[in-house]
Amino acid sequence: MTAEPTPQSQAAQRAARALFRRARLNRWLGRRRAALALCRQAVDRADYSRAYTLMSQLSLPGEDYFHVLARIHRHLRPRTYLEIGVSRGDSLECVLPQTQVLGIDPQPNLSKPPSANVRIYRETSDDFFAKHSAREELGGRPVELAFIDGMHHFEFALRDFVNVERAAARSAVILVHDCYPLDERTAQREQVTGFWSGDIWRLVLLLRERRPDLTVRTIATPPTGLGIVLNPDPSSRPLADNLEALIAEYLARDFSVLADRKPEALGLIENRWPVIRALLDQRPKS
Ligand SMILES: C[S@@+](CC[C@H](N)C(=O)[O-])C[C@H]1O[C@@H](n2cnc3c(N)ncnc32)[C@H](O)[C@@H]1O
Q1: Distance, CA 106 to ligand 1 centroid (Å)?
Q2: Which of 35, 64, 175, 230 keeps 20 to 30 A from 163, CA to CA?
């Protein structure tokens, strides 16, 4: 429920808007650091999503995740694609007509009917993987490209990763949305800001620390980073066999573990297509 505006909250919104406008002007003048500092002051005054959006464009320059996702589809030309969390179908717009697609979402809200190559499962990802074999649904083929963008809590994303990896080809690429939080407030498990990434960063940390056999990076895409995992192993057990203990261990990790080392901890790579393409081309060929 949205709280009724009070005179104080309205004044805070006005102050945040004024700071945001100054930030925008500073960006236009090429003063990036000043613009970032003003955005920070704005969001400290009030929940002002436009300031967060500008902050993300300043911190994570380059194409947004839709454009990068579309480039990845065009480069890999996957035979199969699995997407968890389809919402209005915006990220599904990136798929190629020849790709066989499974989309999973308990409450899809597609802005137009899915095309013939797309099958939507109206259920949670946990229910989907409990009831179906993704490979069977794909006519016996493994998943070649996946995008995890469902429930934005670490333990859900971890289970999604384990289930997707089990169905994946060795050459598959697994993408995970919202891996690079801008700050602690937008990285909380409970959503207190309009602009929100949740605690998916914990999954990236875990994969980088506990699965050295994987290549795990975060592409610096606005608004909140795109995780990319290469070299999945469908027979791997360390995560699946220790799920509850790992969830407890990583939920206990405080956001402060990222302090001063967020880019290294989350494997940040530049959001430039030649860099992303070179990474993709390192994956094992099946
Ligand atoms: C951020 S939206 C997805 C946006 C979409 N991928 C895009 O980029 O256009 C997240 C979606 O995840 C769905 N979702 C929430 N919990 C889920 C779950 N347990 N399993 C699968 N999807 C879930 C929500 O219904 C929502 O539509």
Answers
A1: 8
A2: 64
**176 and 89 inside one domain:** yes
Residue 285 is assigned to a structural domain of this protein: no
Instruction: Tell me, yes or no, whether 11 and 107 share the same domain.
Output: no
Sheet holding 268-269, edge to edge: 118-121, 100-104, 80-84, 143-148, 168-177, 226-230, 215-219, 268-269
> Cα of 191 to ligand 1 centre, how many Å?
15
Write down the pLDDT at residue 2: 59
pTM to 2 decimal places: 0.94
Residue closest via CA to ligand 1's atom 7 equals 91
Helix axes 201-210, 243-251, angle to 10 degrees: 120
170 and 94 belong to one structural domain: yes
Q: Are 231 and 213 in contact (CB under 8 A)?
A: yes
Residue 93: give its domain's CATH number: 3.40.50.150
20 shares its domain with 115: no
Distance from Cα 126 to the centre of ligand 1, integer Å: 13
pLDDT digits (tens, 9 = 90+) for 145-201: 999 999 999 999 999 999 999 999 999 999 999 999 999 999 989 888 888 989 999
